[in-house]
Design goal:
Length: 181
């Protein structure tokens, strides 16, 4: 028994009108081409090479932008940190200068008060005050030499104070000395 015998004429015509070969789907074709390319049996098309080159260029550009952003952020942070440190140092230097000014003024007022003591004041305390004043002046001059080692005024002050400390001035005759700087 064959199928031809069981079919009606209309069924037989419909069967013969069917295509003898069927076209594969687009998906099957793409999968087959991709498998052949992965195996190295089929080269990439120029369109696909351009597409891959474009993707590689976009990845490289993204990396450059990312690293550029990091570098710029680091640079801005370092600059801001340096500015902050410089401002703090300026502020500290200003505070130190103001402290020196206040202390120097207080030192000068104390010396002036000591020099205006009446002759009836206890000479022992006046002599002690003079010694303390000279010691403070000597210590201050030593610190100023650290700031400006070649300053001739400070060097001369230290020379005079060293000379005075060695006792070379023990024959002081009571007249005022003038020291020119």
């Amino acid at each position: 028994m064959s199928y031809d015998e069981e079919l009606t004429r209309e069924e037989q015509a419909a069967l013969e009108s069917l295509p003898r070969a069927r076209e594969p789907s687009q998906l099957l074709e793409e999968r087959t081409i991709r498998a052949l390319r992965n195996e190295g049996l089929l080269a990439l098309s120029s369109r696909q090479r351009r597409s891959r080159a474009l993707v590689a260029a976009m990845i490289a550009a993204s990396a450059v932008l990312f690293l550029g952003g990091i570098a710029t952020g680091q640079w801005l942070t370092n600059r801001q940190t340096a500015n902050t440190i410089a401002a703090m140092e300026r502020n500290n230097a200003m505070q130190a200068a103001m402290l020196v000014q206040r202390t120097g003024s207080a030192y000068a007022r104390a010396i002036a008060a000591l020099s205006h003591m009446p002759d009836s004041a206890d000479s022992r305390y006046v002599a002690q005050g003079r010694e303390v004043a000279l010691t403070a002046l000597y210590a201050a001059a030593n610190e100023v030499v650290r700031l400006a080692p070649d300053d001739p005024v400070v060097i001369r002050i230290l020379q005079v104070l060293d000379h005075d400390r060695e006792g070379a001035d023990s024959t002081f005759d009571g007249t005022h000395r003038v020291i020119w700087f």
